Amino acid sequence: MVSTRAFDITPHDTDELPEIPTEGIFIGDAGNVDCVMATEANADAVLTFTGLSAGSILAVAPRIIKTTTTASNLIGLRRGIKG
Q1: Which of 19, 35, 76, 78 could bridge to 62 as Cys pair (CB 3.0-4.6 Å)?
Q2: Within a 13 Å sphere around the CA of 57, how many CA atoms are in the beta-carbon half?
Q3: Which are the contacts of 52, defined by CB distance < 8 A and separation ≥ 6?
Q4: What pLDDT digit, counting tens, does each position of 55-64 carry?
Q5: Stated pTM of the model
Q6: What are phi and psi of 6, to 5 degrees?
């Protein structure tokens, strides 16, 4: 994956990420990521990715990152021009 855009992610239980779709999330500090996927048929389904290592990239396209996420210093990654 080659990304040309990056943005900070602040977990929130209802606010969508500022840039959707993402192509991945850089995990700054280890932990779990609780998210709602951008194309999930059940719009409220929360998926938990556990045991993520610091410095790893989670290749998913979430719509929301929940406040129950324990990983921190998250950076959203995507390609293209904003807009």
Answers
A1: 35
A2: 12
A3: 27, 30, 31, 32, 33, 58, 71
A4: 999 999 999 9
A5: 0.87
A6: -145, 150
Q: What is the mean pLDDT of residues 45-60?
A: 96
Q: How far does CA 53 lie from the centroid of its chain?
A: 14
Q: What is the mean pLDDT of residues 69-78?
A: 97
E-assigned strand segments in 22-78: 24-29, 31-37, 47-52, 57-58, 62-65, 72-78
Report yes or no: 71 and 52 within 8 Å, Cβ to Cβ. Answer: yes
Q: Which of 45, 50, 55 is nearest to 70 (CA)?
A: 50
- How far apart CA 60 and CA 14 sit, in angstroms, is 18
Mean pLDDT of the chain: 90
- Alpha-carbon distance of 28 to 65, in angstroms, equals 15
Cα dihedral across residues 13, 9, 33, 63: positive or negative:
positive
Residues of the chain above pLDDT 70, percent: 90
